[in-house]
Amino acid sequence: MFDRKKMEELRQQLRDWELENRARLQATRKPADAFTTRSGTPIKPVYTPLDLEEKGFDYAKDLGMPGSYPFTRGISPGMYREQLWHMSQYAGHPTPEDSNKLWKTIIGAGGNQIFIAFDLPSQLGYDPDYPEASGEVGRVGVSLSSLRDWEVAFDGIDLEKITISVNLNAPGMIGIATHLALLKSRGVDVQHMHGTCQNDILKEYTARGNYIFGPKHGARLVADCLSYCATHAPGYRPIQVCSAQYADSGATPVNDSVLALVDALAYFDEAVARGIDIDLIAPGVIFLINIDYYDTFFERLARLRAMRKLYARYLKERYGAKKPESMMGRWYGNEGGPPFTRQQPLNNIARSTLACLCGVLGGCQHIDLRSYDEQYGIPTPEAIVYGPRIQNIVAYETGIPDTVDPLGGSYFVEWLTLEMEKKIRDGVEEILKLGGAIECIENGYIQKMLAKDGYQWIKDRQSGKTPWVGVNIFTTVEEERPVRIYRADPNVEKKRIEAVTENRKKRDNSKVKEALAHLKEAVQLPPTKENNLMEPVVEAVQSYATVGEICTTLRELWGEWREPSF
Amino acid sequence: MKNKKIRVLLTKVGLDGHNWGVLAVAMALRDAGMEVIYLGRHVKPEQIAKVAVEEGVDIVGLSSLSDAHRVLAPRVVSLIREKGCNAPVILGGFVQPEDVPELKQNGIAEVFGIQTRFEDIISWIRENGGGKGNREM
Fold first, then answer.
1. What is the pTM for the complete model shown?
2. pLDDT category of residue B136 using cuts at 50, 70 and 90
3. What CATH number corresponds to the domain at position A285?
């Protein structure tokens, strides 16, 4: 690839150019050390084949063809020429009825995947009438406590056309089971069930905070979901391994990648230790990966490519995966929103557009953007429609999706991809040396890493080191606010308590009792290939047992996790 | 001899798990020479009140991004007052500006928003935190 004579000529040419333009290259508009990526990689003014030669770049080894190992250029040969990405929208209003209306609005605006935003009691295994739920019901998303609520929430929505992503983690298994039960009740063959569940408990202990049980029980539930779905719903992705929430806690692109990868390895280790075949479960894995462009667009973009390559290598080399589907890094590109501002809120639409571009250029299979009014509260329907609309503009008006991996071969992007690969691999190996993800959660190592990055992120914005339009540059004196801000109905808690009470009255309570007893029995037996907790949880959900009842059963046996101090 | 450092209790309240902000504030207060006790996540008002009294803190700082603070923050204030602790209770996180007057009426001494500068929190605590609680200045 690199002809020696030609490279020598190029080296000379570059030297001459640098000499000739020395003064101008040094007279930069910001200090020389400010040309650095967020993860700390210095960026030069220009890249040439010399930079790739120096890194030992090899087309076949480092890139390969799209759809082929190591999938750097994408996981399918034709990428968006075959199929556009799924246009997802994270959304939920307080009650199942409110959410039904909101989701139909999103579908009407061109969205084709509903990413359910739950309220905190639903995410932490409390029903609306539990004391712990007081003040929290329906505040940050929809309150769904049983299959009954799901029936109402998805009424009139065609679940063979619209896919569901379930943002549950600690009770992720219950979310999958309820999704399955809903499809079954509609006569859908779940062998063809699509969708995803977040179900990535490990990042909850550090970045996101919605944990119930300890990491070892959490990993058991995840491994059960993976192995159950591989057989019963092979089109379903029962876990989104998340880098996104690490980024949303301020982690650098290198660190959020490292943490997501070590989490994925921890789940695989758990499953493999139980004798589960890696090629059975790995195709069920998708990553929720951050596409916010801050503070450096190309670093985020290069990371999407580097991570695909690294992930494929780990699957092949560490686990001996054989199926290509096991080694494919599938990306659910997520704009987390930390760069969003209250000031000049419509600017956030421009930020989302750039995030979308980052996701598309990086080959994501799903994209989910934030709503421009999210710095003011739960999105209003008027604002949330711009999520799918921005995606449709990028998809249909620009021609960007017509070429696979259009930035492949850019000297800069390839150089940065190699750089990111190295830094991420070093970070992963470091944590593995320290005992892996679970160990590093239990001893507070990961928490410290995030706190350090997060503190720096904020300090750099407060000091003005990181420019931020509307906040520390180009500020306006007059406050600009969205036309309307969403506020939840103050009676929502009461309404939801009534709904869950009615469910408890109407269902056959002897069936609920029986199902919960089966669950209790299975939990007390060791996890094996045969003793999978999905079976009793599906039974419980179908009997209209509530999230609170199922989680209480587990809490009684497993207790609750307390954060280590760090 | 009494510890001269201002003692601040920082904690999440309720079910909200977002801790980026509160951890950053904890680090900023430590860098400013204060002593910070951080209780972590999923902490109930009763637990907060208990620690506030036992540790004799000068300031109680709550972090919430879930809106539940409208119910839970006033609960913390009344619980710690019942126990005879007069430390000011401050709130940070995602708070709707129109909720601030009601929160203040219910005993929240100050509310800091998502883009508050560390230095503003630090100087507020220095002005209002020393000696109003359990500790003599």
1. 0.95
2. very low
3. 3.20.20.240
In a domain, A558, yes or no: no
pLDDT tier, A163 (very low <50, low <70, confident <90, very high otherwise): very high
Superfamily of domain B7-60+86-101+108-128: Cobalamin-binding domain (3.40.50.280)
Answer whether A208 sits within 8 Å of B17, measured CB to CB.
yes
Residue of A nearest to B27 (CA): A455
Domain ranges of chain B: 7-60+86-101+108-128
ipTM topping 0.90: yes
Whole-Å CA distances, A35 to A29, A31, A45? 10, 8, 9
CA A553, CA A519: separation in Å to the nearest integer? 8
Q: Give the domain range for residue A361.
A: 64-70+83-462
Q: What is the pLDDT of residues A183-206, one digit of tens each?
A: 999 999 999 899 999 999 999 999
Residue A152 lies in a domain: yes
Across the interface, whether the CB atoms of B27 and A455 are under 8 A apart is answered yes
Q: Is the pLDDT of residue B135 over 80?
A: no
- B interface toward A at CB cutoff 8 Å? 12, 14-20, 23-24, 27-28, 38, 40-42, 44, 65-68, 70-72, 94, 96, 114-115, 117-118
Chain A residues lying within 8 Å of B51, measured CB to CB: none
- What's the order of all strands across the beta sheet hosting A163-166? A196-197, A163-166, A113-116, A86-91, A366-368, A331-334, A285-290, A239-242
Structure tokens at A404: 């696979």
Residues of A in contact with B17 (CB under 8 A): 204, 208-211
